[in-house]
Amino acid sequence: MKVGFIGCVDSSRSALQTLLGVDGLTVSAVVTRDQSAVNADFCDLTDLCYENEIPVHLEDPKARAESVAFFTSFDLDVIFCIGWSYLLDESMLALPRIGVIGFHPASLPNNRGRHPIIWALALGLKETASTLFLMDAGADSGPIASQVPVPIEDTDNATSLYEKILAVSTNQIARLGAELVEGTATFVEQEHSQATYWRKRSRKDGMIDFRMSANVIHNLVRALAPPYPGAEFGFGQKYISVQKSRIAVESYPLNIEPGAVLAKTSNALLVKTAGTEAIWLLDIEYGDIAVGDYL
């Protein structure tokens, strides 16, 4: 079975390595990029392609039709598209005999759309999923080939949840690859009436407002941990990044305003939040912020 592959992030590399190990599959061609301004977890796949003598095309975002033309000569049975920030046009979707397999780390049909790992953590979800599906012209709306729940622990952040989903998806891709070779793969239509969508986040979605509860702030911080750029708060003309936090166990008087700096160490601040709560912002460079300042 001849397979094409599209991707340019860490999960793409893992998926490509997995497909290379599936008996009966031949990765015939790869479309990737040599850089990406929109993917914090960008990964160069060209070395893996050269090592395995796989023809590779570096896509120009302004000339996507060239990727379709590149794949056309390989008579592909299926394409795996893992870690790609753009919808594919209909000419690409129609190219392989079976279709294009996509990946979305959420419980489809719930939570289609953008930034699923970030939103799942920021909103305090207790579970997400790793989903492989047959891509169509919509966003994450095609028939599901495989879906495995992934629990979200209170101790998880973007780094650990990313790793958990990557481990699950690797097994799914290996299993689906074998099923495609055997001709036993099945695709189940989504319940479109149950679909929900997450929007594209912007920088302001990562801004800490200390009128929030300590738990909401903590969820935002863990959602934007590496490979993402961190939550932020402003002080004077500066923005300070926060990638780690801890909710204070003590209670503080209700008449202390949110944003008051209650204590500090060499690399951490204790800040009053909503109600009687406070939160430690850890491993930060806070400059000349002092106890008693307001953030």
Describe, in plain words, how this protein is organized in 3D.
Helix 1 runs parallel beside helix 6 and helix 5 packs antiparallel against helix 7. Strand 14 and strand 15 form a beta hairpin. The protein folds into two domains: 197 residues, 3-Layer(aba) Sandwich (Rossmann fold), CATH 3.40.50.170; 79 residues, Roll (Methionyl-tRNA Fmet Formyltransferase, Chain A, domain 2). It starts with a strand and ends in a 14-residue tail after the last strand. The chain is elongated and about 70 Å long. It has 295 residues and is of the alpha/beta class. The protein contains seven helices and 15 strands. A seven-stranded mixed β-sheet has the order 3-2-1-4-5-7-8, sandwiched between helices. It has a four-stranded antiparallel β-sheet with strand order 12-15-14-13, covered by helices on one side. The longest helix is centred in the middle third of the chain and has 25 residues. It comes from Vibrio agarilyticus. This is Formyl transferase. It holds the Pfam family Formyl_trans_N. One of its GO terms (molecular function) is methionyl-tRNA formyltransferase activity. Keywords: Transferase.
H/E series: EHEHEHEHEEHEEHEHEEEEEE
- Write down the overall geometry: elongated
Secondary structure tally, helices: 7
Q: Mean of residue pLDDT?
A: 95
Largest sheet: 7 strands, mixed
CATH superfamily caption of the largest domain: Formyl transferase, N-terminal domain
